[in-house]
Amino acid sequence: MKYIVFDLEWNQAPDASSIIQEPIYLTGEIVEIGAVKLDENFCPMDELRLYIIPQYYVKMHKEIAALTGIKDKILAEKGVLFPEAYKRFVEWCGEEYAFMTWSMNDMPMLIDNMVLHGIDVSDLPACYDIQRIFSREIMRGNTRYSLETALSILKEHGDTSHDALHDARNTAKVCDHLDLELYLNEYASQVFAERPSQTIYDTRQDIRD
Fold first, then answer.
1. pLDDT number for residue 182
2. Which residues, other chains included, contact 128 with Cβ-Cβ below 8 Å and sequence gap of 6+?
3. In the predicted model, what is the mean pLDDT of residues 180-201?
4. What pLDDT sits at residue 184?
5. Under 8 Å CB-to-CB from 158, ≥6 apart: which residues?
6. Distance between CA atoms of 91 and 76, rounded to whole angstroms?
7. Are the C-beta atoms of residues 204 and 71 closer than 8 Å to each other?
8. Do 192 and 126 form a contact (C-beta atoms < 8 A)?
9. Other CB atoms within 10 A of residue 182 CB
10. What is the 3-state secondary structure (H, E, C) of the chain?
11. Spatial distance between the Cα atoms of 155 and 31, rounded to a whole number of angstroms
12. Could you tell me the pTM of the whole model?
């Protein structure tokens, strides 16, 4: 079993009146996937970064571009369409794996974008919320902490945030402080059965907090 720690960056409509309603209600369109693959002992073994050319929100939202550093030019030069990016992602994941994310915001967004492009979501693996495990096992409570705060508490030096690969790396660093083998069964989540939130955030920082 491998564990895929992943993070997403996504673009959104410039305002609520511009939100795509068909073929689905689209709150965000993924423009970057960053992932770190952990082996069965939760040790990092590989990394992946993919940029995605948006098809619906084709111009980067000014606030999101400022926060993430992802510009239209980067996507045009390095990006691929979502179906190709997802194909590369799952091929890189391998045969047997589970997902790990910081909070449960990214997984529903992944599913929304899969549905948008007609990709089957029925066989997605379990996903573990590392934010929740950190809160329960390190802080002994239910308070949700930002990834940056968790790194500070653990005295870990993290990579620059709001970059999908960097945030995946940072989440993997938190994993190194958790007794995952002991607690994973308790925290498995079939989040793919849920629908993404329809909230439109002013900035990506609002999503992280």
1. 82
2. 3, 98, 99, 100, 101, 180, 184, 187, 188, 189
3. 58
4. 81
5. 147, 148, 151, 166, 169, 170, 173
6. 23
7. no
8. no
9. 9
10. CEEEEEEEEEECCCCHHHCECCCCCECCEEEEEEEEEECCCCCEEEEEEEEECCCCCCCCCHHHHHHHCCCHHHHHHHCECHHHHHHHHHHHHCCCEEEEECCCCHHHHHHHHHHHCCCCCCCCCCEEEHHHHHHHHCCCCCCCCCHHHHHHHCCCCCCCCCCHHHHHHHHHHHHCCCCHHHHHHHHEECHHHCCCCCCCCCCHHHHHC
11. 31
12. 0.89
Residues 6 or more apart whose Cβ sits within 8 Å of residue 139:
145, 153
Classify residue 208 as exposed, middle or buried by CB count within 10 Å of its CB (0-12, 13-18, 19+).
middle
The pLDDT tens digits for 22-39 are 999 999 999 999 999 999
- As a whole number of angstroms, the distance between CA 148 and CA 182 comes to 25
pLDDT above 90 (res 125): yes
Mean pLDDT over all residues of the chain?
Answer: 90
